[in-house]
Amino acid sequence: PSWGHQRLSWGHQGPPLGTSGTLSPALSPVLRRCHLPVSPALSPVQAWVESLRHPEDTLRGLAELHPDVFAVTPRLDVLHAVATWQRNYKRISHARVRTRAEVRGGGRKPWGQKGSGRARHGSIRSPLWRGGGIAHGPRGPTSYFYMLPMRVRVLGLKVALTVKLMQDELHVVDTLEMPSSDPRYLQDLARFRHWGRSVLIVDVNEFPENISAAVEGLKSITLIPALGLNVYSLLKHQTLVLTLDAVAFLEQRLLWHDRRYSPLYPFSMPYRDLPEPPRAG
Amino acid sequence: MAAAAATLLLRATGRALLGRAAPLPRAERGISDCRGARWAPARPGLPVPLSSPLAGLSRPIRIKEPPKRKPVDRWTKKRALFGVYDNVGVLGGFQIHPKNLIMGPTWLRGWRGNELQRCIRKKQMVGDRMFVEDYHKLNKRIRFLYKRFNRTGKHR
């Protein structure tokens, strides 16, 4: 690994919890509580908070995750429905063949009805003929658009996040700050921590330059804003890395749907009495 | 030496007495269509193992393999970022709907219909921009599909 030959400093955060205290005094651990109310029957699930500053920095603190987002029933049928929807709703197939009316020619009867000894035909472009039109072929640009109910799409996201957490493929990171913008550093870090073949990194809004430069050069590590989170990408990438801000954002947006009324008009227009649907920042 | 010769003689007489016939002729190789390259005594040193159906043929049969699959890169930019922003409505305050992200013909964005509905919608939205011949063909198609759907078959 490349870091063995460099002398990396810990920076202002101090050394991770797991190492000995011979270095500068360790800061207090990063603890994150659930800001939104949790039902008294459930308790939050927990995940380690890691950091990208050093490959061994995996025990920087503990984050509590809301159980109604990260510990729902694992509905695989909902996952399948949402992933299929994502594949198909934007599909527009441009396959088109000409019918007998559209093929050039074929207006005249090729030979008389009776007497020639050949089969009777009305045009040389009927579907029976070579070079004729196709009777029941694909016709024109076809769209396969449909929408799943909003609650189903939200539940799909919750189930996907739950599955990632329960299969040890979810990692929470405090920030995305990296010591270097070398793609190999990120690749070695992912390999050292056994993250898997593909990593999806999610943050809210702005990314530090180092990580965007590092991800430019890598194929199977993807960096997306929290707005872009979706079930298909979660299933395509093996590991998910969320920042604490992204966790708060997702919890707030996904839990709002449990307590809202049905829309009488689209939510894009203002409501007076509902808890305000969270606006984009 | 003499003992070996004596054993052989003894075995030959034994076989003759028991009436064992000569070694059975080898069964015909069951190759359905080898296009004339029938079985012949195998020459030693051939690359094909003797157990395969190709062994011992006088002329090598041309074997066609199924075409190899071309390698597909699963991590291009398009494939890695497929599906991103599909939940921009839910996660983003409902200002954008995912149907606004669909790239395609104007009359098909965020809408679905059967062929007659698509033709009518295309005529309504884009009809005055179309070429004359295409507009004419579109009208013919609408007329044909209307009669087909509403006057023939079980559902009318």
In short:
The complex is a heterodimer of chains A (281) and B (156). Chain A has 281 residues and is α/β, with parallel strands linked by helices.
Structural commentary:
Chain A: It is found in: Mitochondrion. The complex is a heterodimer of chains A (281) and B (156). Chain A is of the alpha/beta class and 281 residues long. Helix content of chain A is 25%, strand content 13%. Chain A has seven helices and nine strands; from the N terminus they run βββααββαβαβαβαβα. In chain A, helix 5 (209-216) links the parallel strand 7 (199-203) and strand 8. The longest helix of chain A has 17 residues, at 150-166. The two termini of chain A are 39 Å apart. Mean pLDDT of chain A is 89; it is low at 1-9 and 20-25. By secondary structure, chain B is mainly alpha-helical. Helices cover 37% and strands 0% of the residues of chain B. In chain B, helix 4 packs antiparallel against helix 5. The N and C termini of chain B lie far apart (103 Å). Classes of the chains: A alpha/beta (281), B mainly alpha (156). Chain A binds chain B through residues 86-87, 89-90, 92, 99, 101-102, 139-147, 150, 153-154, 157, 198, 219-220, 222, 224, 226-233, 236, 249-250, 253-254, 257, 266-268, 277-280, and chain B through 75, 80-95, 97-99, 101-105, 108, 110-113, 115, 118-119, 122, 137, 140-141, 144.
Topology:
The complex is a heterodimer of chains A (281) and B (156).
Chain A: E1 30-32, E2 45-50, E3 61-65, H1 67-70, H2 76-88, E4 92-93, E5 142-143, H3 150-166, E6 170-173, H4 183-192, E7 199-203, H5 209-216, E8 221-225, H6 231-236, E9 239-243, H7 244-256
Parallel strand pairs in A: 1-3, 2-6, 6-9, 7-8, 7-9
Antiparallel strand pairs in A: 2-3, 4-5
Chain B: H1 2-18, H2 77-80, H3 88-91, H4 115-126, H5 132-151
Family (chain B): Belongs to the mitochondrion-specific ribosomal protein mL51 family.
Pfam family, one (chain B): MRP-L51
Protein name (chain B): Large ribosomal subunit protein mL51
